[in-house]
Amino acid sequence: MEQEEVTVDPQYLKGFNNGYLLAKHEPQLAAQLTAQPNDHNEYFKGLVGGKAEYEKEAREWAKSFSKGAPEKDDRDIHKER
Fold first, then answer.
1. Exposed e or buried b for every residue in 27-61, given b needs 16+ CB within 10 A?
2. What 3-state DSSP class applies to 6?
3. What Å distances lie between residue 15 and 23, 50, 60, 74, CA to CA?
4. Among 42, 39, 36, CA closest to 7
5. Is the pTM of this model over 0.90?
6. Residue 9's closest CA among 34, 39, 41?
7. What count of other Cβ atoms lies within 10 Å of the Cβ of residue 18?
8. What is d(CA 31, CA 11) in angstroms, rounded to the nearest whole number?
9. Contact indicator for 12, 43 with CB cutoff of 8 Å
10. Are residues 51 and 19 in contact, defined by beta-carbon separation less than 8 angstroms?
11. What is the pLDDT of residues 53-71, one digit of tens each?
12. pLDDT tens-digit profile of 37-49?
C-alpha cells in the first residue's frame, strides 16, 4: 500500500510552531491569544494546535514523572553528547 503525501498549509505550520513555543515559554499569553476561537484563519488554527500539542506532551511527561523516575528527554539541550 502506498503512503499518501500530506501537505500542510504553511500558515498552519507557522502557527503550530509558534503556538508550541508560546505555550512552553509564555503559557499565560498563549492562553489569552487562543481564548477566542477563529476557525477561518489557518495560522490561528495552527496556534491552537501547537498549544494543545505542548500541553499534551507536558501532561504525559508529568504522568511519567509521578510514576517514578522520568524518562530521559532527548530534547534536553544540556544532555551529554
1. eeebeebbeeeeeeebbbbbbbbbbeebbeeeeee
2. coil
3. 12, 7, 23, 24
4. 42
5. no
6. 41
7. 17
8. 20
9. yes
10. yes
11. 999 999 998 888 776 655 5
12. 888 999 999 999 9
Cell of 58: 507536558
Amino acid at residue number 61: W
CB 23 within 8 A of CB 51: yes
Give me the helices (H) in the chain, please.
10-25, 27-33, 42-66
Backbone conformation region of residue 36, classed left if phi is above 0, alpha if psi is from -120 to 50, else beta: beta
Distances (CA, A) of 13 to 19, 20, 55: 10, 11, 17
Q: In whole angstroms, give the CA distance from residue 5 to residue 77.
A: 31
